[in-house]
Amino acid sequence: MSNTFAPLKNDTFLRALLRQETEYTPLWLMRQAGRYLPEYRATRKGAGSFMSLAKNPDFATEVTIQPLDRFKLDAAILFSDILTVPDAMGLGLYFEEGEGPKFERPLKDEKAIMALEVPPEGSLQYVFDAVTQIRKTLDGRVPLIGFSGSPWTLACYMVEGQGSREFHGIKAMMYKRPDLLERILTLNAEAVATYLNAQIDAGAQAVMIFDSWGGALADGAYQRFSLKYMQDIVNKLQREKDGQRIPCIVFTKGGGLWLEQIADIGADALGLDWTVNLGQARARVGDKVALQGNLDPAVLFAEPEQIRQQVTAALQSYGKPSAGHGHVFNLGHGISQFTSPDAVTVLVETVHEVSRQQRQA
Ligand code: CP3
User: Fold this and answer.
1) What is the reported pLDDT for 165?
2) Cβ proximity of 293 and 276 under 8 Å
3) How far apart are CA 73 and CA 341, in angstroms?
4) pLDDT exceeding 70 applies to what percent of the chain?
5) Helix 38-47 with 57-70: angle, nearest 10 deg
6) Cis peptide preceding 294, ω within 30 of 0
7) What number is the average pLDDT over the span 284-305?
8) Burial environment of residue 157 by CB neighbours within 10 A (0 to 12, 13 to 18, 19 or more)
9) Given this model, what pLDDT does residue 138 score?
10) Where is each Uroporphyrinogen decarboxylase (URO-D) domain found (predicted)?
11) Which of 78, 146, 158, 262 could join 199 via S-S bond, C-beta 3.0 to 4.6 A?
């Protein structure tokens, strides 16, 4: 497939991921398009549901652009969800009002697991259509990030049928029938690699793997059941498109203990949650990867001056940027729906301003 897109006007985000020099620290926010924005809530109301937003490229484009029209963010992220992949595998994703995502047909028994297959050709075309339309609409404003869940994180939802605090079902399977779990993970890894490569073909300029539940695993289990499959994906990703490097970000929430190992799987950047000190993380991974993160999303509930202090402290903990290192500012997890958009304005302005000063000092 060949698309011609406008050249980038702001490539700061991509340069930071590739550990090249930048004039300031770029930022975007996980879940930057979402319920904390009144304009998102209005569009969602018109569309009827989250899935009807995600499945319609016009709506998906509209809500992807909304946060960019309000804040000087340095990247856009595709509006979709990690659970579209298991949905396309036939599990039947749905959202109940006021509750998280659920599956109509979770993987309840061995029979269901043996019958599982990668998504049929065409079943995720709506996502790729959205990517292309968003990229065209962006017109080179900022780069577009594509994303997927990690095989383990997807499996958590596929087996439990919904979010969970303890993951008893999937963890029981992991210890009792690792062969069954490995079958799911192998299929997920294959599906995700194909999915991300198709997003890249459709116009995604960077990709991110969300391993939201990797941190629930024991040491040893993490490497075997989560990290290994992310490595398989990274190995299969196309890393260049039309002469441009396509950086890949891996984010294990709760993965602070394993940073050195995550830095070794060949991704360009590591996402960090808020439990990690940025400077220490930088020292641990050296110049192998760029870092992305990691302000506690709850900081945005504080007063403007306190937000400025916390953001400045985070930038200072990373230290003075230098060639060979890269930092993309972000939250340590998705922005809360209860955040005031004004708090985000303070955050964005502070990151840009203070990080420029840092480079001059
Ligand atoms: O970051 C972005 O702005 C892009 C869009 C995006 C969404 N979900 C939209 C969404 C991304 C990158 C995701 C990733 C995602 N989805 C993850 C990984 C990141 C993480 O948070 O750990 C996970 C675990 C999911 C699964 C999921 N989808 C959950 C747990 C929920 C409910 C929680 C919530 O915030 O409501 C969703 C729904 C969802 N995905 C919403 C959005 C904007 C809210 C839906 C709504 O409008 O009601």
Assistant:
1) 87
2) yes
3) 13
4) 99
5) 170
6) yes
7) 97
8) buried
9) 98
10) 26-35, 145-161
11) 146
